[in-house]
Amino acid sequence: MKKFNKSYLVHKALQPLRNFSFQGKKYHYFCHKYNSSHLNERAVELPIVWAEVQRYKSYEVLEIGNVLSHYFPTKHLVVDKYEVAPGIINKDVVEFKTKKKFKLIISISTLEHVGWDEEVKSKGKIPQAIRHLQTLLAPGGTLFITLPLGYNSYLDEHLRTGKIKFDETFYMERVSKFNSWREVDSDILKKKPKYGSPYENANVVVFGKVKKSFAKDITHLAGTFVPRSNKNISVLETREKMEKTYRQMC
Ligand SMILES: C[S@@+](CC[C@H](N)C(=O)[O-])C[C@H]1O[C@@H](n2cnc3c(N)ncnc32)[C@H](O)[C@@H]1O
Predict the structure, then answer these.
(1) Which is the closest atom of ligand 1 to the Cα of 71?
(2) Centre of ligand 1 from the C-alpha of residue 166, in Å
(3) Per-residue model confidence as pLDDT tens digits over 203-222
(4) CATH number of the domain within which 171 lies
């Protein structure tokens, strides 16, 4: 039996017994033959991101970089510059334009390639991509990105200096040859983890969330929208009340 099959079968057999914690929740390590997910960072990225995706309708979700469809039955829109497959839009992330807004935009270990594995390197292209993706979020929407550390030195520097700053940032570190991971704090950035060492592929993965508030998008309603049911409601009603009303309209 090939070594690959053996390691897959061992991980598959142990999968129900092995789990990890992320943000207070328990997840099973993901085990799949495609790209040997059981041996690398996909083991933690996939269960975390897939749990998030399942909270939404597929038309509310945009994925940058075609990853999830290799493992799950997906129906959401995917933008990927190079991977050719039915339904994938082959566009550079910064060039993808649409009038549609998404409640959830996800990207699994993709943005580290942007401006790095390209003919012309560009230090500013990942921040540009993140800003661009924020413009595609619906009010109340979330951008959820995973990124390996140590792969792209521009990215690592942006994270260390705060040029790239998420609303919420979490870190997972690989801690064993058998592909066990644990959540760690931001001090891990100072340790400058390497990609490919001590373990193959990523040794630390950053999970970043950017949330688009309702408030930013309801300011234009302030002077124009008065709920039909109560014409006396002042346009100066609390932000909370307006957000609730806006959500009901959507
Ligand atoms: C994480 S890999 C996906 C590889 C593989 N499908 C997997 O599941 O691991 C990153 C993906 O990002 C895409 N990509 C790289 N640069 C891009 C860019 N500037 N805009 C959009 N997609 C890009 C590549 O085509 C590649 O499919």
Answers:
(1) 8
(2) 21
(3) 999 999 999 998 755 444 44
(4) 3.40.50
CB 211 within 8 A of CB 167: yes
Q: Is the pLDDT of residue 145 over 70?
A: yes
| Structural domains counted in the chain | 2
Q: Domain containing 242: what range? A: 213-250
Cα-based distances in Å from 224 to 25, 32, 233, 242, 245: 43, 52, 12, 12, 13
CA of 17 to the centre of ligand 1 (A): 32
Q: What is the pLDDT of residues 39-92, one digit of tens each?
A: 999 999 999 999 999 999 999 999 999 999 999 999 999 999 999 999 899 999
Distances (CA, A) of 211 to 78, 121, 135, 136, 186: 20, 28, 11, 12, 20
The CA distance from 12 to 2, in Å, is 15
Span 10-50, pLDDT tens digits: 898 988 889 999 999 999 999 998 988 999 999 999 999 99
List all residues whose CB is within 6 A of at least one atom of ligand 1.
35, 64-67, 70, 79-83, 92-93, 109-110, 113-114
Calculate how far, in angstroms, residue 66's C-alpha sits from the geometric centre of ligand 1. Answer: 6
